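FAQ: What does a ligand-bound record look like?

Like this one, built around flavin mononucleotide:
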Amino acid sequence: MQPLETRKDYTYGTLEQNQLLENPLEQLSVWLEQASQAGILEPNGMTVCTVRQGRPSSRVVLLRGMDTGLVFYTNYLSRKGTDTATNAFASASFWWAALERQVRVEGQLEKVSSTESDAYFASRPYESQLASAASPQSQAIERPALEQLVMDLRTNYPERVPRPEHWGGYRLVPDYLEFWQGRKARLHDRIVYKFKGGKWKKERLAP
Ligand SMILES: Cc1cc2nc3c(=O)[nH]c(=O)nc-3n(C[C@H](O)[C@H](O)[C@H](O)COP(=O)(O)O)c2cc1C
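The answer part, i.e. the structure of the complex:
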């Protein structure tokens, strides 16, 4: 095992408030594009944290689009889905090691429209449609039972699968984002955006 006590100095870039766009979602798009150009695997992978009765739970999902928020798709009956039904507050974070960058997002989750979910589900490959429609995500199950569910669905829908009502998109609508750039000697740059009075305001935080 590699030693856990690594001591890497971060020297890739720097961050100034006036370098960052006024709209943090546009800034996030720029960083996502740069992460993609840098050849990072799944640059749109983000860790989403939900909370039920004070107990947080986090997992990776793939960001599938951005408009007024960050959109991802999942099973509404999963743990994250049922957490969200009682507490809409959630957070997400990205870590792109090659760029020495982190982004943190906080806000509330809302369901995307069923039209959007239909369109996204229809655009997925058949095998992905089968898996997401058949799998009772986050429930206990034996592997043969799971495979049987997929086989049954394949028999019923040999070409395309209709989107189940319990599968669709969430949009994390943020009111707080942080852009973090690693710097030398642990004096990292952190610029946060807060949504107040209908406007985004930026400020620097101590590392
Ligand atoms: C790289 C990666 C991408 C993933 N993308 C998704 C996704 O877009 N949607 C999803 O529901 N689960 C996705 N997962 C699986 C989740 O991490 C998680 O196992 C699943 O959603 C169940 O989480 P829950 O029980 O907390 O609801 C992904 C996992 C990884 C490692």
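Follow-up question: can I read anything off the structure? Yes, for example: The chain has a mean pLDDT of 96.
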